[in-house]
Design a protein that fits this description.
This protein is mainly beta. It has helices at 30-39, 127-137; strands at residues 6-9, 11-15, 18-23, 43-46, 49-55, 58-62, 70-73, 77-80, 86-94, 107-110, 113-119. Strands 1, 2, 3, 4, 5, 6, 9, 10 and 11 form a nine-stranded mixed sheet that branches.
């Protein structure tokens, strides 16, 4: 079953085949974190806003055509990058909330789909590594 697409204010990259949705208020660091993840090998899906929909029980993010391959680099402007059109979301990273020192296993339900959730400060130097660790080792592992 496929739901109708809806717009979501977020950025997305794919890391080792897994989609990572970066969410937060304007200025929270979505584009900056996406850029640093891309420097570590991630592929851009989309920046600023995405179309999301449920397809076969999974949440899929897709970049709208008019912004495909573009990422805002603060202080430089819109820059073009290699990109992929869509990714299945396997991690949500919230950049606008308090970060717990020892988080519990947390999920976010988005469009009826439960997805692991990580809270981060996007501007910490270790933020890209923390995203990668959450994908490979999980969140709140005891």
């Amino acid at each position: 079953m496929t739901s109708a697409p809806r717009l979501l204010h977020a950025s997305c990259v794919r890391i080792n085949g897994k989609g990572v949705l970066l969410m937060g208020a304007s200025g929270a660091g979505k584009s900056d974190l996406a850029l640093r993840l891309m420097d570590r090998g991630a592929t851009l899906v989309g920046d600023d806003y995405l179309e999301v929909q449920v397809c076969d029980g999974q949440l899929v993010a897709q970049v709208p055509d008019r912004i495909s391959g573009k990422l805002e680099v603060r202080g430089i402007g819109l820059c073009r990058f290699p990109f992929i059109n869509s990714a299945t979301i396997e991690l949500i990273v919230r950049l606008d909330e308090e970060v717990a020192r020892f988080p519990q296993q947390v999920v976010e339900v988005l469009d009826g789909i439960s997805i692991p959730l990580l809270h981060l400060n996007a501007y910490e130097a270790s933020a890209p590594l923390k995203v990668e660790l959450a994908l490979t080792q999980g969140i709140g592992i005891a």
